Task: structure prediction
Amino acid sequence: MDFKGRQTQKCPRCGGKALINQTKCPDCGLVFSKLEYATNKAAAERYKNGERNAVVFVRKTPIDLKKWKLILYGTLFGLFGAQYFYTRRWWWGILYLLGFILLSVCVIFNGYLVGVAGGALIDVMAFFVGIYGICWIFDIVRICFGRFKIPVSLPKQEAEVVNIKEKK
Ligand SMILES: [Zn+2]
Result:
């Protein structure tokens, strides 16, 4: 398909290009309107069942999450990975917690650590703490500009989808 000079959108599932007025991804067949009813909760359930293929990462806040909460958590408790725990990206959340532990160790035992291996150990630790801090800043920027990726999936039962539609 020739996309030159036409407005396009990116498919959140396969990353392929589609025209802005197309309802379906020409590459993978994802029906875009369905994403409106996809929830973060359903994505967590899919992961638990090992159905990774049913999970799509989107940048728009899904209906079962609130953007203001994401901003609040990311800013106030972002160093604890709250933005990842809220969007059910557990592994990233745990990684941030480890980052926080590392930061604490660096601060509390600083006096002792500077003497280890001629200061090489604290240098390495500080390097990782630095990466962790930069990641957190980037998270906030991404959240504010609507670039933070959130896993979503359609609820398994059609009844649940109908339920979501009625709630709206
Ligand atoms: Zn696609």
Remarks:
- The chain is about 50% helix and 5% strand.
- The pocket of zinc ion is lined by residues 11, 13-14, 16, 25, 27-28, 30 (CB under 6 Å).
